[in-house]
Amino acid sequence: MKDSWNWAGHSLYSYRDGLSEEQRKKRAGIEDRKQVLYLKIKNAVSYEEWRSCAIELDELENNNAWKQTLESTEYDPRLVQDRLRQLEDARISCDVSRMLFLVRTALSRDLAHMSNASLYRHSHIGTKNLIDRYITTALETIATLVDLSVHDRCDGLELKYILDQLLAARQAFGRSALLFSGGATFGMTHIGVLKALYEAKMIPRIISGASAGSIVCAVFCTRTDEELPALLDTYIHGDFAVFNKKGQEENILQKMTRFLKFGSFLDISHLAKTIRNWLGDMTFQEAYNRTRRILNICVSSAGMYELPRLLNYISAPNVLIWSAV
């Protein structure tokens, strides 16, 4: 009798969804696995752990099918294909002059609108394979150009000319930078971002910050590569109560009194001492000479009609970093 009821139940489900019992079990297994992967992504402690889960999720959700197709209203695939073909032809033929011309004139960060944020919302990791292929080919073209120059196969072009053209291309293309916003709670998030990028060897040389973000990037940009691993392991466990001494937290009445007297809710004297202990009396120029990283700190102006100032080793080489923070 029980078997008959089970058979009747399976038959009813099959009639409703058109799936066999085995297919339903497979679908349920996939859904369970997806829930596990989503939980792992949420609690991932490293980029590699997050990346492996994202790749598997894209496979389970069939997002790779979207990546493999060319067509989309969110960018111009024909233009990307055309530029890709030009780069590949020049690289395969080892045409130094042609490669140099393309690198100098054709590279663009938003070619065919491929930086459109919508292109990166269809999957957990990556975007259209065509875009990935174009970026890889552009990098390979530059590497081939440099390799041919090193082996003196420059089609009669002087090495200095090639170097000048590559530097001009970099100037026109622009350089990636890491920007940290303000907000006390964001400070801990910024440290996690830095740690993940450092472990992936993807941290840009140019780092900028404001408010809490300036504290994080200032501490990071004053440490050498040898000092960074220990810093990143201990920094997140440090004391971030920068406005009050431990055990001497102020109440709202004290803060209101200070605001009425000085126009500020918080006492910055303890902040100055804490930041100075972290950074010492190091200037922007000294930090750049020590680490070769370009630290930028945005400082609000004193007057309402003045523009904010961006301090770095060029605009304010002799300014103490702790005072800017």
UniProtKB/TrEMBL annotation:
A motif (GXSXG) lies at residues 209-213. The keyword Lipid biosynthesis does not apply. InterPro entries: Acyl_Trfase/lysoPLipase, NTE, PNPLA_dom, Triacylglycerol_lipase_N. Keywords: Hydrolase, Lipid degradation, Lipid metabolism, Membrane, Transmembrane, Transmembrane helix. Pfam families: DUF3336, Patatin. It is found in: Membrane. GO terms for cellular component: membrane. GO terms for molecular function: triacylglycerol lipase activity. Probable lipid hydrolase. This is Patatin family phospholipase, putative. It comes from Penicillium digitatum (strain PHI26 / CECT 20796).
